[in-house]
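Troubleshooting: if your tokenizer reports a length mismatch, compare your output against this known-good record of 85 residues.
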Amino acid sequence: MQDGSASPLSPEAPSSPAATEVSVDVRGPDADIVSTHVLVPEEQVQKLRELARRTRIHQSEYLREAVEDLLGKYGRGAPKEEGQS
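Known-good structure output:
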């Protein structure tokens, strides 16, 4: 899902080290996805950036997965569809 533009979490982004904004392209099947702003410790941003680079999976995908896991952990996530673990 990378479009070649600078990620909000990339070093080129003009923001403070602890402030990151996750932007999502709302075209396509995920048109109901919205952008949000979160503050993340610099160390976590660096680790997430490296993970995304190494695996070629967008940081936003990892963040959406983390939110889904968190909501599931506290019983507020969407019910899993059959075949999903």
